[in-house]
Amino acid sequence: MKTQVKAxxxxxxxxxTSIAYHLARAGWDDVMxxxxxxxxxxxxxxxxxxxxxxxxxxxxxxxxxxxxKFYKTLEEETGLNAGFAVVGxxxxxxxxxxxxxxxxxxxxxxxxGVPYTFMxxxxxxxxxxxxxxxxxxxALYHQTDGYINPADVTMAMAKGARQRxxxxxxxxxxxxxxxxxxxxxxxxxxxxxxxxxxxPSDEQVVITAEHVVTASGNHxxxxxxxxxxxxxxxxxxxxxxxxxQDPELVKWRADGNPEHPVVRDxxxxxxxREERGGWILGIYERGAPARxxxxxxxxxxxxxxxLDLDRIADQYMAMAxxxxxxxxxxxxxxxxxxxxxxxxxxPLVGPAPGLRNMWLAEGFSFGITAAGGTGYYLAQMMVEGxxxxxxxxxxxxxxxxxxxxxxxxxKNEEAYEHVYIxxxxxxERPACRPFRTSPAYDRQAARGAQFGHVNGWERPNYFAPLGxxxxxxxxxxxxxxxxxxxxxxxxxxxxxxxxxxxxxxxxLVKGPGATAFLDWFTCNKLPSVGRINLTYALTINGTTRTxxxxxxxxxxxxxxxxxxxxxxYDSDFLRKAIADKTPEFGYVECHDVTTQWGVFAIAxxxxxxxxxxxxxxxxxxxxxxxxxxxxLTMRNIELGMVPVRAIRVAYTGELGWELHHPIEMQNHLFDxxxxxxxxxxxxxxxxxxxxxxxxEKSYRAFGNELGRDATPLEADLPRFVDLSKDFHGKDxxxxxxxxxxxxxxxxxxxxDADPWGREVLYHGDTRVGxxxxxxxxxxxxxxxxxxxxKPDIAVVGTKLKVKMFDQLxxxxxxxxxxxxxxxxxxxxxG
Length: 830
Ligand SMILES: Cc1cc2nc3c(=O)[nH]c(=O)nc-3n(C[C@H](O)[C@H](O)[C@H](O)COP(=O)(O)OP(=O)(O)OC[C@H]3O[C@@H](n4cnc5c(N)ncnc54)[C@H](O)[C@@H]3O)c2cc1C
Known about the structure:
Layout: E1 4-10, H1 14-25, E2 31-35, H2 58-78, E3 89-93, H3 96-111, E4 117-119, H4 121-127, E5 138-142, H5 150-163, E6 167-170, E7 172-179, E8 184-194, E9 197-214, H6 220-227, E10 234-243, H7 247-254, E11 262-265, E12 270-275, E13 278-283, H8 309-322, E14 331-341, E15 348-351, E16 358-362, H9 367-384, H10 405-417, H11 441-446, E17 449-454, E18 457-463, H12 470-473, H13 482-494, E19 497-500, E20 505-510, H14 514-521, E21 532-538, E22 544-554, E23 557-562, H15 567-585, E24 589-592, E25 597-603, H16 607-614, E26 634-639, E27 642-647, E28 656-662, H17 666-678, E29 683-685, H18 687-696, H19 730-736, E30 741-748, E31 760-763, E32 766-777, E33 782-789, E34 799-804, E35 807-814
Parallel strand pairs: 1-2, 1-9, 2-6, 3-11, 9-16, 19-29
Antiparallel strand pairs: 3-5, 4-5, 7-8, 8-9, 10-13, 10-14, 11-12, 12-13, 15-16, 17-18, 19-25, 20-23, 20-24, 21-22, 22-23, 25-28, 26-27, 27-28, 30-33, 30-35, 31-32, 31-34, 32-33, 34-35
Helix pairs in contact: 1-5, 1-9, 2-5, 2-9, 13-18, 14-15, 16-17
């Protein structure tokens, strides 16, 4: 066994094997894969092997798309047939809402070029007469996917990996990880059989590896503990059953008919595919428990849990109704195994928090589908520094240290049972809430706040009369909440509104090296003391890693504000960069002060009037004037008794201030502002209205327009890039040129719907890009969106089309900041 390698991959399931294969294919010739038992002996061996394209995320669609195409090439490369049956995938809808969901999904899939067809119930019946269709509204058919044999595809990838020089060591368990400053020293133990269990022997070896990847499946909690980090990857029970032969299905095939597609009966929470004249029925039921929160016992190897027939009885009966010819088929076999989940259902792929050269690939619930693409894109990240797609939505650091075992287990159970619910874009999931609340939570709730969930925080989405039912108001079109958001957006454009922005990520960066460090770390000029700037930290690939509002508090002291959802993600990047650069720039301190500061954003033409009521100053009339408090500056002010770090910016594009305050004084400040705002008609405003308003100003949002697949120049933000200085990622950014460009669109969409920001864009009959944001504009009285298109058509006045509900709707590229392009209202004096 080698004891020195470039990369050590821990875990020989589908995911780890694909990563080892792709690292070798990307040119690393010294890769070892370690498996504590046999390859595929984790969850991989008992997967049903379905390869569904369906998901609502751009990054995941790319990953699944790569896998499906890659698996089709494996036989030619390795000579091993992985049993890929390209039978297609039929998703049936029993309701109009389900069809709306499929149409939104199809538009997203089309942004990645995934083919699909909509079918009427009659068309389904004509093609597959065994399926009952009289309760259907329609179906979505993917002709290019199907299912594969999970063990065979893993073995094919393992053979391909070996052919490319990867060493695969079975019956060795990684037991301890030590970073020696340059490489990982991984203690591995020979595993032996003992009474049917797999137990560690006394034989141990230390392997030195420059990089380590963990793909430990159900053992993620043990891995996390060894690494001293948190990972919300905990398995849940998942069942599929194999039914006895269905006589009519047998006859159907004997008559020379092709195999049925994978049949997804989403409204009945199940999927089915043919298996030797019978059906495999897989179920996403309610009440499936989380497992192995504290580790996998030695006795659980390639094992299963007992079948809980009561739990899946409804779906079993529904299958007999959907395919009546199988009603008398008995139960032949059952597979109730652990399927790893995370709270949002996406895996954890990317650099581990706080650690160097440690990469995670954990928490896969669609691991057979995702393995190929994960291997490909993770290898890009490891070998080249970045992947060609933005992997942020899979990054392990989207969960912070606030996450606990109990939280992850309950959220994972929820993610599991939500697989087949309607995936409303305005969905908010209820488990483990409220959890992270700002002090004003109760006051806001009492005033009708309907909260959203951001990185664990509760943040008002909108305010509605008490008793309003958010759940029932959700829709793929304009939901019941829409009018409330319209009223709130108007309040900010015409009067004054107060937004709780406490969830913002906040860092304090200071010390003798801080200025030189931040000047290198971010692409815009640093502000002078008392001023603020919008700026970007780039990836090594020149794309946007993080957006910061930087406030310069003192010569070498900066307050950095970034997106609320990304605290650990931003912290990790900042801290690692500081550690790397301290020898060059000198000592820099970095503190995550997110939970120390509350933030209220007050905005609207009357915001100054409200603040004047409560500000303490020798001359309250002038203290907020343009002269004493210009736009894009920071002042320490006192509102009543509360010391406030006030920043004159407004993400809504209206006259306004962000009021950063000691979090323990939040309720005092809330009461003060609410009272002062009464006579000015101040309205409490939520995140949905804010999201619409910022699009009228073309303010890019992190995670939408801003991410690791576009440079700030492609985001069309040259005014925030100082090309006269050197900064991290500059050369790569310039080398990319402009591959696609961010634009703002006004859209003549359907009367009852706005785009969500995932839809495909057309120019004539040609697919030219995608929306990254969408919503409603109160200023223009129509839908609005932002997105990326090919640069030659990113020209004001270009007529485009947005695909919504399977139809193309007119849209026009408008100038940046279509509302108040000269920023007159923001700068208004008073
Ligand atoms: C009933 C059922 C049906 C499913 N159907 C589908 C489907 O149709 N399509 C789909 O895409 N997915 C499906 N899945 C999910 C799929 O099985 C998993 O997502 C996938 O197998 C995960 O692969 P993995 O490589 O991440 O983990 P695993 O296959 O669990 O592999 C992890 C490996 O790491 C090894 N390991 C752990 N710790 C160590 C260590 N310290 N040292 C060395 N080795 C270690 C383990 O022994 C194990 O072999 C299904 C799951 C279930 C339960």
